[in-house]
Amino acid sequence: MLKRTALILFAAVAGLLAPGARADYQPKAEKIVDNVYALVGPLGQRSADNDGLNANFGFIVTPKGVILIDSGASRLGAEKLAAAIARVTDQPVRWVINTGSQDHRWLGNDYFAGKGAEVIALARTAATQSEYAGQHMEGLTRILGERIKGTQPLPAPKTLAGDSATLERGGETLELAYTDAHFPGDARVWLPQQRVMFSGDLVYVDRLLGVLPWSSVKNGQQAFHALAALQPARIVPGHGRVCELAQAQRETGDYYDFLAGTVGAAAQEMEPMDATLDRYADLPAFRHLQNYGDLHRPNMNRAFTEFESQ
Ligand SMILES: [Zn+2]
User: Fold this and answer.
1) Please, what sign has the CA dihedral across residues 24, 95, 172, 186?
2) Which of these, 47, 93, 147, 202, is most buried using a 10 Å CB contact count?
3) Is it the case that residue 21 has pLDDT exceeding 60?
4) Phi, psi at residue 145, to the nearest 5°?
5) Residue 294, CA distances (Å) to 19, 123, 152, 170 in order
């Protein structure tokens, strides 16, 4: 018994000294098509165990290096992404593209830039990263504790002007466009050759999307319609398993349509908010989604407020 206690103590101390060595969540690459991979994170909350990697990432292997979509929430998170990529290819990560400004989309930038990668984002994405950096580091420090050590916020140094931009890297074509839904400056990355969409935090499946005080339901609805018009063959959502358009439509597109078309319309018609929220408190079409119980009413509340003020 004493031996066991000593062992546990030793493990705990070793864990503190070398947090990267802890036996914890490790992302695994999942092949989407040809040279395109997804790293699908757990559906739950950020934790020290998952190093804030509770979101999806992706990468494209080219003969000239790897293009990584989003860089993780911390230095240790970025190292885990790098390790998952290294299990698929020997190619180094030469380019990082950020789809957003929320911690897990970009706080690993500094790690990859330090290894020589070019870090790229649309201009408003990078500007929003700068704006929220302090707030996100503070929040993450509370959750990750010691494990945030070595994380330096690096907003994407290479910025692209315009509402959309086409990138050519390693022989691949990537089309970026703003979605501005979950966070201002959020973007999606479309691979027209493979018809794969990295939606960033526009699309959530398996768990209900969250409308935050700075989110826009109106933008989310418009951006989803634009995404659907491209008819992607596969979608790597911001959260949840890799899916096809039909599931994204049911679990995100239809929900944005409901929030804008039903709750938003009620707000514009100056109906009372509480009665509206009560009327739609139970929606069987979305009840199966994780976080529904916690998020559905606050989501409606924020949608109502957004449309009321227009
Ligand atoms: Zn997210």
Assistant:
1) positive
2) 202
3) no
4) 60, -135
5) 32, 33, 32, 43
For position 22, what pLDDT does the model report? 56
Is-contact 285 201, C-beta < 8 A?
no
What SS3 state is found at 74?
A: coil
Q: From the CA of 46, how far away is ligand 1's center (Å)?
A: 10
CA of 11 to the centre of ligand 1 (A): 32
Please report the pLDDT score of residue 201 as a whole number: 97
CA of 63 to the centre of ligand 1 (A): 30
Q: Name the pLDDT band for 304 (thresholds 50, 70, 90).
A: very high
Q: Is the pLDDT of residue 263 over 60?
A: yes
Around ion ligand 1, residues with a beta carbon closer than 5 Å are: 55, 102, 201
- Is residue 242 within 8 A of residue 57, CB to CB? The reply is no
- pLDDT tens for each residue of 241-262: 999 999 999 999 999 999 999 9
The pTM score is 0.92
- Residues 265, 307: contact at Cβ < 8 Å? yes
